[in-house]
Design a protein that fits this description.
The chain is built from two helices and 13 strands; from the N terminus they run αβββαββββββββββ. It is mainly beta. The strands form two sheets. Strands 3, 4, 5, 7, 10, 12 and 13 form a seven-stranded antiparallel sheet that branches. Helix content is 14%, strand content 46%.
Length: 235
């Protein structure tokens, strides 16, 4: 199963990186005069597809802030609603199935400020019978760098309607990659969701297996910025 997991994660990361590169170039060339900390966004994968100018099954929960951001250069939040993203194998998918969603959001650092903290919060609702293995991978990224990872592994273990809170936070990382950022740097924040189920039983059926976004079904991104020192490098 590990080979399958690694292959799926590698493909998901490659897809997200390729799309993010083109997204970064477009966002940088269309920088708005009025700085908004969270700007253009997209979501793409086998379980989601949408963009800020292309309606789909993902939508912002605070879209008004994109038009009229709060006047706080030190902190901002941006949420995306994922009501349709779920893992619920049925029929021919009974032996195994995977669902992925790669979210990317353009980050603008206000003039004279540097990104000092990046966080993503979400909740999962999980139901799983005894047979089978469930692997839930959540990853916070900044550009191509991984900032934090949270994984849930349920190997031949049963759960019924369990709520699992996921908190991805740059302050929990072993290496502070944000400390390297220049003053006023523009970046792409990302959240990768990869959920995999594999049935151990040859003839078994994964009746009742269901993983979906819990609570308000939102991935909430939070950024915090600090003032740059007078002699700090600037972009």
């Amino acid at each position: 199963m590990m080979a399958t997991i690694e292959t799926i994660l590698s493909l998901a990361c490659l897809l997200a990186a390729v799309v993010a590169l083109s997204f970064r170039a477009e966002a940088a060339s269309q920088q708005p005069a009025n700085t908004r900390q969270f700007d253009k966004w997209f979501a793409l994968g086998s379980g989601c597809k949408a963009r800020e100018d292309l309606p789909g099954d993902v939508m912002p929960v605070n879209a008004e802030q994109l038009k009229n951001p709060p006047n706080d250069p030190g902190r901002a939040e941006f949420g995306l609603l994922l009501p349709a993203f779920k893992l619920a194998p049925q029929g021919n998918a009974a032996r195994g199935i995977a669902r992925e969603c790669a979210i990317r959001v353009h980050l603008n650092s206000p003039t004279g400020y540097r990104l000092s903290r990046l966080r993503a919060r979400l909740k999962l609702d999980v139901t799983k019978p005894l047979p089978g293995d469930l692997f839930l991978h959540q990853e916070l990224k900044l550009g191509t760098e991984t900032i934090d990872i949270k994984q849930v592994r349920l190997m031949n273990q049963a759960l019924t309607d369990r709520a699992i809170n996921i908190d991805l936070d740059s302050t929990q990382a072993t290496e502070n990659n944000l400390a390297k950022l220049e003053c006023g740097a523009k970046k792409i924040a990302g959240v990768d969701l990869t959920w995999i189920y594999k049935n151990r039983e040859v003839e078994g059926k994964p009746e009742g297996v269901n993983v979906e976004m819990g609570g308000d079904k939102t991935v909430m991104l939070e950024g915090q910025w600090t003032k740059c020192a007078p002699d700090a490098p600037r972009t």
